[in-house]
Amino acid sequence: MFIQTGITVFNAIFQLFLISLAAGITVRKRFISPSQVEALSTVTVNIFLPCLIVAKTVMRFNPGEFPNWWILPLAGVFIVMAGLIFSGLLFKLNPEKRPLMTLSSMQNGIYIVLPIGQILFPEQFDLFALYSFLLIMGLNTMMWSLGTVMLSGDGYKKINWKNFISPPLLAVFISVAAVLTGISDFIPEPVIASIDLLGQATVPAAVFVLGATMGSLSLRKWPPVSDILIVSTVKFILVPATVFAVLYFSGLKASMPLACSMLIIQGASPPATNLILIVKSYGGDAQSVSAMMLIQYLVCILMMPAWIAAWQFISL
Q1: N- or C-end of the chain: fewer Cβ atoms within 10 A?
Q2: For residue 87, what pLDDT band results from cuts at 50, 70 and 90?
Q3: Domain count, the chain
């Protein structure tokens, strides 16, 4: 049963890999320019994803049915802190390794998690997406504050507070507030349906942007093997094992099965592609960060199915 589940999950992730690979090749062969990829990424982040967040939150978020929703933003912070603690210990708190500690702890909470959720939980995808959006309230706050400082190092520039107010994060806060205050009840259904229609473009666009971003990374210089092993160990063994253990021994898998599956996927997810954007905006070693990130995305093809299959197996 475990092997069968693992193969099913691997096939789901491999579908995303093939799309991403095709996108990467189009960039490498210059069928699509980096500026065009950036434009699609901008539209996805600023339009499609916020629309998906607003639509799914307004349509599916019911505080009465999910009174402990605030756990998910805290879970986003917990996953980051677990990664920082493990990587800090293994790197012996070496200040020069701070960018690698960031890569070990801050996951891609949207661009790879949502497509996997859509394939594995098609009938519950709306709720799966809502859980992911609530989690990124904590994740993105950590990423654009502590993550920016750790990635920038000596090249650190003053953080612009506006970077905290990204359209997806703003969409989460506004839509959650609209539901909690009851304002969402006054939004006409045709408006929500139109927003939802735009939001449906998020997943395919996100997978393509992810592959195109990976395809544009430089392969000229590879990080030391020791660094690769430490980042991979933290990202794909220690952090997901910690999330797995907390969920299993807390007994949450019985009362929140879908949320737990989402958290397992989040815990085993590779580094966030936004970390490259942070390095480009605030300074840092873009080459080392890009090379390490590419390696981690290759590793996740095998490790994510293993963790997801293990969780599905014990949940039967």
Answers
A1: C
A2: very high
A3: 1
3-state secondary structure of 271: strand
Tokens standing for residue 114: 């949502």
CATH for 113: 1.20.1530
Q: State the pLDDT at residue 148.
A: 77
- Amino acid code (one letter) for 250: S
Please list, in sequence order, all residues whose beta carbon lies within 8 angstroms of the beta carbon of residue 308, skipping any fewer than 6 positions away: 5, 9, 116, 120, 261, 264, 265, 268
* Closest to 59 (Cα-Cα) out of 132, 139, 129, 112: 129
Span between the terminal Cα atoms of the chain, in Å = 10
Residue-number span of the structural domain to which 18 is assigned: 2-314
What are the pLDDT digits (tens) for 27-81?
888 888 888 888 888 888 889 988 988 998 898 888 888 888 889 999 999 999 9
Burial class (CB in 10 A: 0-12, 13-18, 19+), 119: middle
User: Residue 35 has which token pair?
Assistant: 């500026």
Q: What is the pLDDT of residues 100-150, one digit of tens each?
A: 999 999 998 887 888 888 888 989 998 999 899 889 888 888 887 788 778
